[in-house]
Specification:
Radius of gyration: 16 Å
Strand order of the largest sheet: 3-2-1-4-5-7-6
Strand content: 15-25%
Distance between the termini: 48 Å
Largest sheet: 7 strands, mixed
Length: about 200
């Protein structure tokens, strides 16, 4: 699986050390193992996880601004865990309301020795423990929902980072008056079929 990951990474400009690559593979192995009992992801094939989960998360890395991030509705740790592995200088809070997912994340942190990841079990509307440079999510059906439920999480200079498939003009126009579109970035995920975008939003006074 390491060779497969290296082949995928070679199609990007990402700089990922051997130690980080090994951690990413170990994470996929844990996800595959726990998935059998916990049903953490509908993707069952570890080789497919490398594309749909690992690479899909990593390509966001170069667009992150700041040091403190929260991944809302992180599920089994996506995109937070892969991003934390290749950005050891940044801090990631991983938020999910489901106990079994948070228990899995705690095991990942322990097994991989991640010192920059804090798993938290909470609903987003109940979480008020600080503000962040970036609010990440690929869990929300719409950007309007994301900015509504997560509006208290970015700091004054913070951004929302929404990982999306196809983004329609209607969805952008449906954003509330207090939110502006900063940029929409077409992501190139090696060997992934389908459109992927990163939409960067910020609050306006």
């Amino acid at each position: 699986m390491l060779a497969r990951l290296e082949a995928l990474l070679s199609q990007t400009a990402l700089c990922v050390s051997l130690c980080q690559r090994e951690q990413l593979v170990a994470y996929v192995e844990l996800l595959d193992k726990w998935n059998k009992a916990y049903n953490l992801t509908s993707v069952r094939d570890p080789a497919e996880m490398l594309v749909k989960h690992i690479m899909d998360s990593l390509v966001v890395s170069e667009h992150l601004q700041g040091q403190r991030f929260i991944d809302v509705g992180t599920g089994p740790g996506l995109p937070g865990i892969p991003l934390a592995i290749i950005n050891p200088d940044k801090q990631f809070t991983l938020l999910d309301s489901l106990g079994k997912r948070v228990r899995f994340l705690q095991q990942v942190v322990l097994k991989l020795g991640l010192t920059n990841v804090t798993p938290v079990q909470s609903r987003v509307e109940d979480y008020h423990n600080g503000q962040f440079d970036g609010v990440l999510s690929r869990a929300f059906a719409s950007m309007a929902d994301m900015t509504h439920w997560c509006g208290h999480l970015p700091n004054a200079q913070g951004h929302f980072y929404a990982l999306k498939g196809h983004v329609t003009d209607e969805e952008v126009q449906g954003l509330g008056a207090g939110v502006q579109l900063d940029k929409k970035i077409a992501l190139k995920v090696p060997e992934l079929i389908g459109e992927r975008n990163l939409v960067v939003l910020s609050k306006v006074a």
